[in-house]
């Protein structure tokens, strides 16, 4: 193992005991990459190197790192009420945060349930779907529809909906009755800035075929990421989400948008549903809800779902047997409120919208590189896919590491780098990310 440099905190005596998530542990521990501090769009690594953050962490910190306003709000909250339960007892910040989140969402998504992560949001949404159909006497709706290449987190509900093979092949005991739509990457429109023009309705009609095969009245819900994020930024073709909405309405199926990445301005609107003009029945979110500072997720539902579930229970009874010890944790709520204040006061969603064309052009400047197979962009989100080297994913993983040592963090999934700058990024920061990507591509060419 590499000896950690003096700039690493002294208490890092061993890397062995921490079993790291989604990481090649043996490889990492041979040559670790530790972030010891962060500010704005930069990380500082344990060797003292400056690393520009090209993925907003994991797409969760659009307002930049180490925001004082959030830290102060959390400090104040923790020294006032560091924990009170959210079962049968409340605290003011959760109600205010729910109101603020609802005000960012399209009507009638006005009821918000708090959780601690995107994975929990997805599993909570699955349970809400079941509770809703049961409450309205439609318990026969036992089938769920998801999509190839989908990522809905790592809890068992989300894994059941997963369309990414590595995330599910080791865990074969998943929910039954999940059927898949085709993913939306056709390869017909490479280097596409924005929505592909072709195939939208045709791809969405997969749902119609499921209705014809299984019976629309047996399907409970369709889960989709409006833009498939973790698989490498697959933007929905024109007409795709609209057609899904139409089929859901025809058959009484709930449409769930998983906006864990796209929520809070990533596409230049508060949520992707506004960008695409399609309103789901349920929206999941997490990540940027607190600017990534404290773990928190949420599920927002249409009024009618909340009312149906709550009104189906006798007075005084618990209506939805679900919740986490840390649902609506006071510190997370304080962080959420402070993050939403920053987004609003600094106009960061508009800033994302304004910067998006520059970002798209900068990313597309890499299209001439011989290693680049495709680039897809929308809002402040892009996927740059490199040709694999014979073993899918190997080059991408190696590139992520090399890029870090070249002073840039970008999250790769397989051979796709997912570039998602902070909304506070200046043009020069975007140029820096793109330059470092090019330099790293050159090293692999
Ligand atoms: N859903 C989507 C669309 C995601 O992109 C993610 C994480 O990237 C999740 C769910 C899971 O979120 P978390 O890692 O917070 O559990």
From TrEMBL:
UniProt entry keywords in alphabetical sequence: Aminotransferase, Pyridoxal phosphate, Pyruvate, Transferase
Pfam families, per database record: Aminotran_3
InterPro entries membership: Aminotrans_3, Aminotrans_3_PPA_site, PyrdxlP-dep_Trfase, PyrdxlP-dep_Trfase_major, PyrdxlP-dep_Trfase_small
PROSITE patterns assigned: AA_TRANSFER_CLASS_3 (PS00600)
Top-level taxonomic group: Bacteria
GO MF terms held by the record: pyridoxal phosphate binding; transaminase activity
Cofactor annotation: pyridoxal 5'-phosphate
Keyword Transferase among record annotations: yes
CDD domains: OAT_like
Family: Belongs to the class-III pyridoxal-phosphate-dependent aminotransferase family.
UniProt name for this protein: Beta-alanine--pyruvate transaminase
Organism for this UniProt entry: Dichotomicrobium thermohalophilum
Lineage summary: Bacteria, Pseudomonadati, Pseudomonadota, Alphaproteobacteria, Hyphomicrobiales
């Amino acid at each position: 193992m590499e000896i950690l440099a003096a700039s690493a905190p002294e208490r890092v005596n061993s890397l062995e005991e921490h079993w790291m998530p989604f990481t090649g542990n043996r490889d990492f521990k041979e040559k670790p990459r530790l972030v010891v501090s962060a500010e704005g769009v930069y990380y500082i690594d344990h060797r003292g190197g400056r690393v520009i953050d090209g993925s907003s962490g994991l797409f969760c910190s659009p307002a930049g790192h180490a925001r004082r306003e959030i830290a102060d709000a959390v400090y104040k909250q923790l020294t006032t009420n560091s924990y009170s339960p959210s079962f049968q007892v409340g605290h003011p910040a959760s109600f205010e945060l729910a109101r603020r989140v609802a005000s960012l969402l399209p009507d009638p998504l006005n009821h918000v349930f708090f959780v601690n992560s995107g994975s929990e949001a997805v599993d909570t949404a699955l349970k809400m779907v079941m509770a809703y159909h049961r409450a309205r006497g439609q318990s026969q709706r036992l089938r769920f529809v998801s999509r190839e290449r989908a990522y809905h987190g790592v809890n068992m509900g989300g894994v059941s909906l997963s369309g990414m093979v590595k995330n599910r092949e080791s865990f074969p005991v998943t929910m039954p009755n999940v059927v898949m739509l085709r993913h939306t990457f056709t390869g017909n429109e490479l280097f596409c800035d924005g929505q592909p023009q072709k195939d939208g309705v045709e791809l969405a009609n997969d749902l119609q075929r499921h209705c014809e095969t299984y019976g629309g009245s047996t399907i409970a819900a369709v889960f989709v990421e409006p833009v498939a994020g973790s698989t490498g930024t697959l933007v929905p073709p024109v007409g795709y989400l609209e057609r899904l909405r139409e089929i859901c309405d025809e058959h009484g199926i709930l449409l769930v948008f998983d906006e864990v990445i796209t929520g809070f301005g990533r596409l230049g609107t508060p949520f992707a549903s506004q960008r695409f003009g399609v309103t789901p029945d349920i929206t999941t979110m997490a990540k940027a809800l607190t600017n990534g500072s404290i773990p928190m997720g949420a599920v927002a539902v249409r009024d009618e779902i909340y009312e149906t579930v709550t009104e189906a229970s006798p007075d005084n009874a618990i209506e939805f047997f679900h919740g986490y010890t840390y649902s609506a944790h006071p510190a997370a709520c304080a962080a959420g409120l402070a993050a939403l204040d920053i987004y609003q006061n600094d106009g960061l969603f508009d800033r994302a919208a304004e910067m998006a064309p520059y970002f798209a052009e900068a990313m597309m400047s890499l299209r001439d590189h011989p290693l680049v197979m495709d680039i897809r962009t929308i809002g402040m989100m892009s996927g740059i896919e490199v040709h694999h080297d014979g073993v899918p994913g190997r080059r991408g993983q190696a590139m992520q590491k090399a890029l870090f040592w070249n002073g840039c963090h970008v999250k790769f999934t397989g051979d796709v780098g997912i570039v998602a700058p902070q909304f506070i990024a200046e043009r020069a920061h975007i140029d820096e990310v793109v330059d470092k990507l090019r330099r790293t591509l050159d090293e692999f060419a």
